[in-house]
Amino acid sequence: MLSEPQAADLAASLVEAARKAGASAADAMIGISRSSGISVRLGELEDIDHSESFEVSLRLFDGARSATVSSASLDRAGFGELADRALAMARQAPEDPYAGLADPALLGSGEAADLDLFDATIAPLAELERRARLAEEAARAVAGVSNSNGASGGAGQSLVALATSTGFARAVRSSHFSCSASVIAGEAGELQRDYASHSSRFLADLDPPDEIGRKAGERTVARLNPARPASGSCPVIFDPRVSSSLLGHFVAAVTGSAIARRTSFLQDALGTQLFAPGVIIRDDPLRPRGLRSRAFDGEGLACHPLDLVADGILTSWLATSADARQLGIAPTGHAGRSVGGSPGAGPSNLMLLPGAKSREELLASVPRAILVTELIGQGVNPVTGDYSRGAAGFLVEGGELKAAVAEITIAGNLKQMFATLEAASDLELRRGIDAPTLLIPEMTVASA
């Protein structure tokens, strides 16, 4: 694999080829990755995979027209032909008055912060297999588990470089490790399944495989013999496994593209009291070892922490340079992109900060509620905020978990849900988007 300086220089060479071909502006990305994975089921090795990929992408501008081309070759000798092809495509494309590179004055400069994203540890297939076996064995050892969907272990490394014709050239190397297990409990006609998994940048930070497996088994057995609660209105509590999905709906509604197209239910919410006082939703791209950490965004802008919601008030949209031009605002440094794609706004490490009550106190704060641990389907209207999804979880009475529940639907409107939600204090930073246990005081619950 190339070094970071070599990858950045390679991307800059492709940009130079574009300028020589006649482009008015250009940016280029280089992506190199390798990954390995292994899975086992019922104690037997089931699958082994290893992949390596190389991708070069050039986004080229001819005035207000643009085109993007990709290649799997890192050979500089082919860059001229790639640039010529991109220019010919751009000259056939429609004009876009908002398209273009980021303002050079806003580009990141100097040395990027070391976010500690790369673990040079090599996890051989034997180690990945050992972890997968331990995870499955621990899951199957839980009383009541009757079958297995399997367990897996994975590891990988990636190197991504970005260069622009305005003078930006940087590369970032990162690593990832993972382990998961999924099992089945019960007998024919009364089967339930669940899983547990964990991903991390560093192998040493990965949860022990037996802990992952035990959690998968216990979660599965707890779902046996589900009941169907009576339909009606009641409090709904979102477990951290699913509470982050509410942040996903929030983010989709505050991206610049949705606001510019007027397709967001939060169209007029900027500067208003969207959540209860005290609620903070923070985007932190500079978290060391974060799964979505980045010093620079997909356009080369320096990234900084931002409270999208402060004391319950919506403070900002998430905007790329194109979004910002259309909305008449400054870009926010939230451009993300795949190697072969165009920039699109999105968060880095997003979190809803913890509240004052413990999880136990939050569960006990209402006499009866539904604790949701799984969501099914995508029944959310991004224009109106209407929310309706299949769910499973547990009945909570007097703060105690009672019978499992399944085949229910929970419904409401996201604006009302945001305005009334209360957060517990049990926030754990384990994914790219994290939230603690969340209580919505009133939602409609219907049995299937």
TrEMBL record:
Source organism superkingdom: Bacteria
Metalloprotease TldD/E C-terminal domain sequence ranges: 231-446
InterPro entries noted in UniProt: Metalloprtase-TldD/E_C (IPR045569), Metalloprtase-TldD/E_cen_dom (IPR045570), Metalloprtase-TldD/E_N (IPR002510), PmbA (IPR047657), TldD/PmbA_N (IPR035068), TldD/PmbA_sf (IPR036059)
Domain Metalloprotease TldD/E N-terminal: 27-90
Metalloprotease TldD/E central domain span: 124-224
SUPFAM superfamilies tied to this protein: Putative modulator of DNA gyrase, PmbA/TldD
Entry-linked PANTHER family: METALLOPROTEASE PMBA
Similarity-based family: Belongs to the peptidase U62 family.
Official protein name in the record: TldD/PmbA family protein
